[in-house]
Every structure is written in structure tokens, then in C-alpha cells.
Amino acid sequence: MNQTGMFIDAIVATGTPAAIVPAGYGSMTGRTYGSIVQDMVDYYSFCQHDLGYSPAGAAGGGHLRSRLG
Questions:
Q1: Are 17 and 33 in contact (CB under 8 A)?
Q2: Best label site of 1, 22, 35, 68, fewest CB within 10 Å?
Q3: How far is 69 from 66, CA to CA, in rounded Å?
Q4: Predicted model pTM
Q5: pLDDT 10s digit of each residue in the chain, 69 long?
Q6: Measured between alpha carbons, how far is residue 39 from residues 49, 52, 59 in Å?
Q7: What are phi and psi of 2, to 5 degrees?
Q8: In a domain, 12, yes or no
């Protein structure tokens, strides 16, 4: 999960948010780079919390796991 930020950077660096993912990439096939990055950022945002705990001991932050489970 810690690699997600690097994947986002790599996709954004292409400078082609309207590019379509070619066939052969499972559920990503036919989606735009922009929509995939948006989903990745939404996931990061969803996993943030204000409970005052993080594995590193800092206030706030996130566990990078769903708050539902």
C-alpha cells in the first residue's frame, strides 16, 4: 500500500489524464488515467482519521486501511 503514492506520481507524470487504459488490465481496462488517480486519492482521503493515533505516534494520520472494517 505504501507504493500507491509513487504510482499516482507516475500516472500524473504522463501528462495524459484522458488516456485510456488498454485491454488486459482487469477492472482498469477502458478507464482514463484521470479517473483511476481520482479513485486512488479518494481512497487515501477515506482512510484518514482524526482519532489522535497513528502507528508512528503522530496525531491524526491514517492507517491506510478501510475505516469500515
A1: yes
A2: 68
A3: 6
A4: 0.66
A5: 578 889 999 999 999 999 999 988 788 899 999 999 999 888 887 776 666 555 555 555 555 554 444
A6: 18, 26, 25
A7: -70, -10
A8: yes
